[in-house]
Amino acid sequence: MAYKGRDRQKSSERVLHPLKRDAVRAERLRELIVELAELNSPEHGHVPVIVEGKRDKAALETLGLRGEVITFNRGVRVHDFCEHIAENHAEVVLLTDWDREGDALHKKLGRELKGRWEVFGRFREVLMLMCQKEVKDVEGLPALLRRLEAGMIEETLIEDGSKEGGS
User: Fold this and answer.
1) HSE of 139 in the Cβ direction (CA atoms, 13 Å)?
2) Assigned fold of 30-158
3) Is pTM, for the whole model, over 0.85?
């Protein structure tokens, strides 16, 4: 019986404090964005990223993407847009919003660009998971990252304060 009690205690120790959870999310989100920026950079991969609109493009540039970010022009048919992309790019990252409209566009673009984006599909999938219900679009990523990283600073201050008080 005592053994079970110890197991319960250990599992409760695994529960992270909200600030630590935010710090872990911020680190992972930053790592994913850095990886995407490297893939997108002219010096490394030069794989363009397709987003829905200008604000999404601006958000990715704010996060450090320096390569080509292509906005889907709503005045152009999906087929024509994808034909132009296929003529000019062997690979792309599809990074549409993860709301209902973005999901529908992602499916349409994905069908038309089959074989060009699937390798990089995990970027959107992981971003959806990391953003949870807080952010449903690419343009919200910089604000989310700032909030999570602010929690990391707050956590450091709390830890430093407890070390000083405990000494």
Assistant:
1) 10
2) Dna Topoisomerase Vi A Subunit; Chain: A, domain 2 (3.40.1360)
3) no
